[in-house]
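Whether sequence alone determines local backbone shape is best considered at the level of individual chains. For completeness, the protein is quoted in full, as a sequence line and a line of structure tokens:
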Amino acid sequence: MGHQEYIPFFLVAILATWFLVGCYPKRVGSEGPDGKRLTWVEMNQSQRKVFMGKEILPRAAVLFKDWRPKRFASVDCTLCHGSGVNTANFHMPTSHLPRLSGELLLGPEFEKHPETTQLKLDRLVPMMAGTLGVKPFSIVTQTGFGCYSCHLGPSGAMFGNQL
């Protein structure tokens, strides 16, 4: 294969990577002073609260109500943030949610709560990452939005997530 035959392959590889990975963070919030929508990181706490109320909470409520209607008949901010809601402590990950094993493939979680773990991996995590406009967790790079964005591991925050 000659040098010139590698160029189209190289361009296709770059375009495919760009298409699959996309540009993150995505602009998902209200308009900023420059007229462009804000990313999650660019939003202040007030803007984040509005965004959560309009975008995240309704989607999470539908997901949980569809899954277990009786248990999640009423969904509010305390589902994820617990009593932090009362003190305006919305930091994630939080000790309000059950701690996870710390295992990358969540073996103990699948063993103990297979349906819950699968629902969160298949539906909740992708929905949250997409709505927030952030990269989904990559097992290869161990970065992005995933289970440990909300849940603590056995000894605290994991994979660069901070309280």
Notes: Residues 115 and 125 are 14 Å apart (CA to CA). Residues 23-149 form one domain. Helices lie at 3-21, 45-67, 78-81, 107-112, 114-132. The chain has a mean pLDDT of 89.
